[in-house]
Design a protein that fits this description.
The complex is a heterotetramer of chains A (500), B (81), C (496) and D (122).
Chain A: H1 2-26, H2 31-51, H3 53-57, E1 62-70, E2 73-79, H4 81-107, H5 113-132, H6 136-154, H7 160-191, H8 209-227, H9 235-238, H10 244-253, H11 255-278, H12 281-302, H13 306-326, H14 330-361, H15 372-375, H16 377-391, H17 397-412, H18 415-441, H19 456-474, H20 478-494
Antiparallel strand pairs in A: 1-2
Chain B: H1 3-22, H2 26-46, H3 50-74
Chain C: H1 2-23, H2 31-57, E1 61-64, E2 75-78, H3 80-107, H4 112-131, H5 135-154, H6 160-189, H7 194-201, H8 208-225, H9 232-240, H10 243-268, H11 271-277, H12 280-300, H13 305-326, H14 329-360, H15 371-375, H16 377-391, H17 397-411, H18 415-440, H19 460-478, H20 480-488
Antiparallel strand pairs in C: 1-2
Classes of the chains: A mainly alpha (500), B mainly alpha (81), C mainly alpha (496), D mainly alpha (122).
């Protein structure tokens, strides 16, 4: 029965990569089998997520309750447009990342590959869980699982630096998780429910203003760690010591995107635009996010290590999403949600490129990249697409989201936000342009022979993501109707008409 | 039965207790402690708790006294305080 | 037929076994072990049956010893609370004994007979405390279990007798204070039967004598429970006792004292009066909160795994005290649930201490490095799971007792307790990840020259109980609603 | 004045004994002295119970042909007495365990003084 399948699909989608984990662990001595399991799980997961699309596009939700977690709160999934949107991005890019990791890990003959693939699978499980979570407690459960699952990825290299970064990551993320728990407990004590509600579960009620602000700060800190909002971002560049596919995963797919996903869940579904505006909470969020955008872009400008520069650029772009949500307008939300996917495809492209360069040539400093574009034209071509998109130029999907964000700030009358977006766009161009210049217009260092492209396992995924970035601009509804889903999600949050 | 006797017994108890804790020779302390428990037994008798008094005399004073002596023989007789 | 007697059977089984163990020494070297194990299994069956019966009928089972009716005779009562605790301690004992079969012989050679005898005596005493309906009888059982406990601690390493002596002094003070409190109550109420006293105390205001009785009882039991300023005996005792003794005493000893506290504060005295008239509940909460922080801070400073876990026990006793101190249904649920969860978690952790001690020779954190993850992958996985549960991440058991505790504090608007809970959780993150980092990441010294260590897992009889208990942490977490609704809610005293 | 002493002297004395016992257990450095303190402490609690059961003018709880058995005030309450029998035995058992431990400490460290013990344990 197809209906039955769909009713169980959310749980199965979460379960499939968890179930793959023991298989991956058992196959530790046989790399081919192990990677077969990874890819199979990725494909099955994407298929399951996809199977939910028709029901959700029709404007419905798919709900599934597994068991009761605490009195009045169940371990339950509720797939709405926004959750499905995020799940589609995450599971779709997992397939590409898996292919790429295989090339990267083998090319670099990394150790502990089994642990890497296993944690990777668990992380994806947790990400889909976060996307589909129907209430705050389920959300927190997967949020903490994600923290634990990504810890082995952050400390993958096991040197002193990596361990320090891991410690910092754990300290931040677990404290944030605790704050989330406390905040949710307060909400539960106030409203007696933790179910997410489009438009906000706290809106409409009469709550003490001071308490609302404190709890909002708790939530902000809670989701702020994973989404790298400024005073809490420092683990992110530090986690750069992780191998590159991990960076791609951390920065484009799983961890940080679950962070900004959490920000929008918080703004749109927990507090609600109405209450946010009434208590002035959106301004708090806007200030934090705006400052992060500018400062992170400036810091990115000063980095000489390619991956570090990309990391700070990520910090800035995550706050685009938060700032967009803080605008509380329809266009603002649309821009924020679209930027999740836009940044995902673009930034994953850039990290794939950085990784391919590193594996192939062992170059990680920007100063070493002279003339590399002639040896690796495909890789660097993809890099150009990614960086132009991040700067917000057409015809790349970054332009689309930025357009909505700008329109949203106009609607909200927040010219400061508009200024932030424009300034950051310029800074983006300024810190990516020198890299492209070096790669294509500087001569190669004397005595270096052209070394050609990296392994196809790496080049094909990165070209695909670059292609996706362009394609999603030209046809935003391509393949999986991301644009429609975003519209549906926004109309749920603001209660208005979806597609602007 | 006579409260004057009881007061005397109580005073004796206090004196024995202080003595047992005060002397440096552990054997002397043991003797004082045994005397203490024996006084307790007398006190019980005077309060009409004959059964308790006899048990205290036999078990409390007797066996505990033996314990003390045995332990001190196995270890040392000197104490710093 | 056994139905009527299952209540009295539980302590009787254990006391009989305590006598049988020395007697059957002549049979075979293994006999004492099997006698102990079989009697614990019988204890599990009897307490399980009692629990099931009292839950299904909804009434407490009263058993009048020798047919004398209270208040003259002594009665044993199995209500959901006491039967549940009975089941808990017997189940934990079964797992600990299962794990300890070879460990007891290897760690304390030649002392297996007194060891198992003491274990049985301890269990008899503890189950007596849980089941009795008489305050003085409770004192006697308290002392019996304490004597067994002192002896068990003393059968340890070279320093164990010193730790045990300190435990003895403080434990005796605690028990004596309790007895003093009982004496005061007896002087004014004229009865020792709990139901009798409760029916008197809950109908009228308390006199100063009764208030001092209450304080003495709380103080005395506080010592046994290792409540914050009274915890001095616990750490050394846990550190120096043998691995099996620690993994037995740590999960169940302090919990039974917590039970006495719950029994006294919620059933014996008038809860409203205790909460508002005299700030006993608040004082308990404060002691619990300070203990949570203190235990956490000191646990972070330890260099020995067992000692670290002992300090963490001080902290977790604080959680239970805080739950009791909230004096609300949610607080009560949190306290009882945390008792259950913490018993299982601490059992796993201390059992793993034992397994490690067998392989490494000690529990020093310095001797742990990443070769362990290759040598004992399963044991370490269980350790990780238990640590995550101790920290309190969902969906493990530890999260949910904290969740109820946070809800309970918020319900009364007591934000300061929430802050304390958050801080103490952060402390536990620090001290557990310190260990996990060593186990998984710290390279072995001179590892380059040596070949990778081979798989050297502890034997199945030691691995299986650890794995089962740690897996049950997930089940306890996911099934917490069922436990709360079907087990703990029936325990709530009538006034709630 | 006499009345006051008359009514309360027992409790005052018992309180003093309790304090002395506690002092011995906690403050004395010698382990055997600690045990002596324990004996004093336990015994004073037992005295308290027996005192609480004592009534002026009553006799031992054995039927006396010369007194009416209907009048409760004629006889002492025997319940605390029986309880104290148990308490005495329990107390002695604990002291016995204490001595066993003390002897094994002495075998391990050749001292009974707490400061030296802590020194030698390091």
């Amino acid at each position: 029965m197809p209906e039955n399948w769909i009713a169980h699909a959310p749980f199965l989608a979460v379960l499939v990569s968890l179930a793959a984990t023991p298989l991956i662990l058992l196959a530790s001595r046989r790399p081919n089998l192990r990677e077969f399991w990874t890819l199979l799980a990725a494909a099955v997961k994407f298929g399951l997520v996809l199977s939910l699309l028709p029901a959700v596009r029709a404007g419905g939700t798919v709900e599934q309750t597994l068991l009761t977690l605490a009195p009045g709160i169940s371990l339950g999934f509720r797939v709405d447009a926004f959750g499905l949107y995020f799940a589609l991005i995450a599971s779709g890019l997992w397939i590409l990342t898996s292919f790429y990791s295989i090339g990267y890990m083998r090319g670099n003959s990394e150790e502990k590959q089994t642990r890497y693939f296993a944690s990777f699978a668990v992380s994806l499980s947790a990400t889909i869980g976060i996307a589909f979570a129907g209430n705050l407690l389920t959300f927190i459960l997967f949020y903490e699982l994600l923290t634990l699952a990504t810890y082995p990825l952050v400390i993958h290299k096991e040197n002193r630096e990596a361990i320090r970064a891991g410690r910092q990551y754990l300290a931040f993320a677990l404290s944030a998780g605790l704050l989330l728990v406390v905040g949710s407990a307060w909400i539960y004590a106030q409203t007696g429910s933790l179910e997410f509600e489009a438009g906000g579960m706290l809106s409409g009620g009469d709550h003490p203003a001071g308490m609302m602000r404190v709890v909002f700060m708790m939530f902000l800190a809670g989701v702020g760690v994973k989404s790298g909002i400024m005073p809490l971002h420092s683990w992110l560049p530090a986690a750069m010591v992780a191998p590159t596919p991990v960076s791609a995963l951390l920065h484009a797919v799983a961890v940080v995107k679950s962070g900004v996903f959490g920000v929008i869940r918080m703004v749109g579904f927990v507090f609600g635009p109405e209450a946010m505006g009434a208590y002035g909470l959106n301004l708090v969020l806007a200030v934090f996010a705006g400052v992060t955008v500018i400062l992170a872009s400036l810091i990115a400008f000063q980095q000489t290590n390619l991956k570090k520069r990309l990391a700070y650029s990520t910090v800035a772009h995550l706050s685009y999403v938060a700032l967009g949500a803080a605008l509380l307008t329809q266009a603002g939300f649309t821009g924020a949600i679209l930027h999740i996917s836009a940044h995902a495809t673009m930034k994953i492209t850039l990290f794939f490129c950085a990784g391919a360069i590193y594996v192939h040539t062992h170059k990680s400093e920007i100063g070493e990249l002279d003339g590399i574009g002639r040896s690796m034209p495909w890789t660097m071509g993809a890099f150009i697409i990614g960086s132009l998109g991040l700067a917000g130029l057409p015809p790349i999907n970054g332009f689309l989201s930025k357009w909505f964000l700008l329109q949203g700030s106009l609607d909200a009358g927040l010219l400061a936000a508009m200024g932030v977006f424009l300034l950051s766009g310029l800074l983006n161009a300024a810190y990516f342009f020198p890299i492209i210049m070096r790669a294509f217009f500087r001569p190669s260092p004397a005595g270096e022979k052209p070394f050609g492209e990296a392994s196809p396992f790496m080049v094909v995924p990165l070209c695909l993501t670059a292609f996706l970035s362009v394609a999603l601009f030209l046809f935003p509804n391509l393949f999986v109707n991301l644009y429609d889903l975003a519209g549906l999600a926004v109309s749920g949050i603001t209660g208005g008409e979806g597609t602007p | 039965m006579n409260w004057k006797i009881e007061i005397v017994l109580y005073l004796l108890l206090l004196a024995n207790a202080l003595l047992a804790l005060g002397v440096r020779n552990l054997l002397a302390a043991a003797v004082a402690a045994t005397a203490f428990t024996f006084t307790v037994a007398l006190l019980f008798l005077s309060m009409g708790a004959i059964d308790v008094g006899f048990t205290e005399a036999v078990v409390g004073a007797g066996i505990v006294g033996v314990y003390f002596i045995a332990a001190i023989c196995q270890t040392t007789r000197k104490s710093r305080d | 037929m056994t139905g009527d007697h299952s209540v009295v059977l539980i302590p009787v089984i254990f006391f009989t076994a305590a006598l049988l163990v020395p007697l059957c020494r002549r049979g075979s070297r293994r006999w004492p072990y099997w006698v102990a194990l079989v009697s614990s299994l019988l204890g599990v069956a009897a307490s399980g049956e009692a629990l099931w019966r009292t839950l299904s009928t909804g009434e407490a089972i009263h058993y009048h010893l020798a047919g004398w009716r209270p208040p003259m005779g002594i009665e044993l009562i199995a209500d959901p609370l006491s039967a549940f605790f009975c089941l808990l301690i017997t189940v934990v004992t079964v797992f600990v004994l299962w794990h300890g079969r070879s460990l007891v012989e290897s760690e304390t050679p030649g002392k297996a007979v007194p060891f198992y005898s003491c274990v049985m005596l301890l269990l008899g005493g503890l189950s007596g405390i849980l089941l009795t309906g008489d305050l003085f009888n409770l004192y006697v059982f308290l002392e019996i279990s304490s004597i067994a406990g002192y002896a068990l601690v003393a059968i340890g390493d070279k320093r164990a007798p010193v730790a045990s002596f300190r435990y003895l002094i403080l434990g005796t003070i605690g028990a004596s204070l309790y007895l003093l409190g009982v004496g005061f109550l007896f002087m004014t109420v004229g009865s020792l039967n709990m139901g009798d006293i409760a029916s008197v105390l809950q109908t009228r205001a308390m006199s100063p004598v009764e208030i001092s009785a209450l304080l003495l009882i709380v103080l005395g039991i506080g010592v046994k429970m290792a409540l914050f300023p009274l915890h001095g005996w616990l750490v050394d005792a846990y550190t120096h006792a043998s691995s099996t003794a620690t993994s037995l005493i740590a999960p169940i000893g302090t919990k039974v004292a917590a039970y006495v506290l719950i029994r006294a504060l919620f059933y014996l005295f008038d809860t409203d009066l205790v909460r508002e008239g005299i700030p006993v509940m608040n004082a308990l909460a404060v002691m619990g909160a300070v203990g949570m922080l203190w235990g956490g801070v000191l646990a972070m400073a330890q260099t020995d795994l067992k000692r670290m876990l002992a300090f963490s026990s001080v902290g977790h006793v604080g959680y239970i005290a805080l739950g009791i101190g909230l004096a609300s249904p949610l607080g009560f649920i949190a306290a009882v649930l945390h008792t259950l969860n913490h018993s299982v978690m601490k059992a796993v952790l201390f059992l793993i201490c034992g397994s490690l001690r067998q392989k490494l020779g000690d529990n020093a954190l310095d001797s742990m490095n990443n070769s362990l993850r290759l040598r004992m992958p399963w044991t370490m996985a269980a350790f990780t799971l238990a640590a995550i549960s101790m920290i309190g991440l969902p969906p493990t058991a530890g999260f949910f007792s904290k969740w109820y505790l946070v809800l309970g504090s918020l319900e009364q608007g007591k934000w300061h307790w929430v802050i304390v809970i958050v801080l103490s959780s952060l402390f536990s993150v620090v001290y557990f990840f310190r260990v996990l980092e060593r186990v998984y990441l710290r390279p072995q010294e001179g590892a380059e020259e040596e070949p990778a260590p081979a798989r050297d897992e502890s034997r199945p009889s030691m691995l299986a109980p650890v794995l089962i208990l740690s897996a049950s942490l997930l089940l306890l977490g996911l099934g917490n609603v069922m436990i709360v609704n079907h087990l703990i809610r029936p325990m709530l005293p009538a006034g709630f | 004045m006499v009345d006051f002493i008359h009514d309360n002297y027992a409790y005052w004395a018992i309180m003093l004994l309790l304090v002395i016992g506690l002092y011995g257990m906690l403050m004395k450095k010698n382990l055997i002295k600690k045990l002596i303190g324990m004996v004093i402490f336990q015994n004073s609690i037992i005295i308290l119970f027996v005192t609480a059961a004592y009534k002026w003018g009553a006799t031992v709880p054995v039927v006396d042909p010369g007194r009416s058995t209907d009048e409760i005030a004629n006889y002492l309450n025997p319940l605390p007495h029986t309880l104290m029998l148990t308490a005495i035995v329990v107390g002695v058992a604990i002291v016995g365990v204490g001595f066993a431990i003390v002897i094994s400490i002495y075998r391990n460290f050749q001292t009974l003084e707490e400061p030296e013990l802590l020194e030698r344990m390091k």
